[in-house]
């Protein structure tokens, strides 16, 4: 498995008007995309990247930075670890209905909407390869 600078998921999201708009306009979508970038790898849905075993991946911090860059607001810390600790359950207990409705997911989770949108722009999500 190796990263290839010619296959850049961030660039493809930024240059896709409708997808970058979803990241900018919807906090829960932005968080769900951040969470999907954590503990997963992404492969361009094309012949050569598959044959060459080329992937795109980011650390949790870097994934948070990708979202902040797309939104042109804040920094990686606004998203880093945003899916940790059962956020929605805590917020319901505390009466914060706004946060409970955000539908944040844990790092590594790929929602159906994110998976479908990535597929439409030519990418597939794969679990982090086993290194054993």
Walkthrough of the structure:
Helices cover 48% and strands 11% of the residues. The protein has 132 residues and is mainly α. It has a two-stranded parallel ribbon. The chain has a two-stranded antiparallel sheet with strand order 2-4. Helix 2 (17-25) packs across helix 3 (27-37) and helix 3 (27-37) packs antiparallel against helix 5 (60-71). The longest helix has 12 residues, at 60-71. The model has no long low-confidence stretch (mean pLDDT 85).
Number of helices: 8
Radius of gyration: 15 Å
State mean pLDDT (0 to 100 scale): 85
Low-confidence stretches: none
Structural class: mainly alpha
Q: How many runs of DSSP E, i.e. beta strands?
A: 4
Largest sheet: 2 strands, parallel
Strand order of the largest sheet: 1-3
N-to-C CA distance: 13 Å
Strand and helix order: EHHHEHEHHHHE
**Which strand-content bin applies to the residues?**
5-15%
The amount of helix comes to: 40-55%
As for the number of domains, it is 1
* Shape category: globular
Give short descriptive properties of this protein.
mainly alpha; 132 residues; two-stranded antiparallel ribbon; two-stranded parallel sheet
Would you kindly provide a brief summary of this structure?
With 132 residues, the protein is mostly helical. It is 48% helix and 11% strand. It has one domain.
Write the layout of secondary structure elements.
Layout: E1 2-3, H1 9-14, H2 17-25, H3 27-37, E2 40-44, H4 47-51, E3 54-55, H5 60-71, H6 87-93, H7 97-100, H8 112-120, E4 123-127
Parallel strand pairs: 1-3
Antiparallel strand pairs: 2-4
Helix pairs in contact: 2-3, 3-5
